[in-house]
Design a protein that fits this description.
Length: about 140
């Protein structure tokens, strides 16, 4: 399977589709998931194009992991979480629905289950408020 440059995350990266962006650096952006599995569910999306982990360049992967770590710290702080859960799906058989590599970064609280993957769409005003909390946490790092 080859990379489709018309996927929705490619359009968000190029600025052709809106997103609740909380962070950007040379290698990746971080946006809120519009169907969050928990408050603060963030996606780290590398700028380098690949379908997923399987076809990604190893150097690109190495360069983006510090960004994943940075976002994990930020969502944990922003939502006073007890832990942070990473999720990453490779191909449809494994649950992948958008075919540009991304890492799900999900704040977790003790005893609280996550909602289903690609479930209900969150209200825009809630996403705006959550994005502000994450940006505020990042501003302190
Ligand atoms: P995956 O199944 O790992 O490919 O996950 C794709 C994720 O992207 C799902 O959790 C969706 O809720 C999320 N998603 C789909 N479209 C958008 C969008 N336009 N902006 C933000 N998140 C999205």
């Amino acid at each position: 399977m080859s990379y489709d440059p018309d996927n929705i995350f490619a359009k968000i990266l190029s600025g052709d589709f809106p997103a609740h962006k909380v962070y950007e650096d040379d290698v990746a952006i971080a946006i809120l998931d519009i169907m969050p599995q928990a408050a603060g569910h963030t996606l780290v999306i590398p700028k380098a194009a690949s379908r997923n982990l399987l076809d990604a360049d190893a150097n690109d992967l190495a360069q983006m992991m510090p960004t994943v770590q940075k976002i994990a710290h930020a969502v944990k702080t922003a939502f006073a979480a007890d832990g942070v859960h990473l999720q990453q799906f490779n191909e449809a058989a494994a649950g992948q629905t958008v075919f540009h590599l991304h890492f799900h970064v999900i704040p977790r609280h003790d005893g609280v289950a996550v909602k289903p993957h690609s479930g209900d769409m969150e209200d825009q005003d809630v996403l705006v408020a959550h994005a502000e909390k994450i940006k505020a946490a990042l501003a302190k790092t």
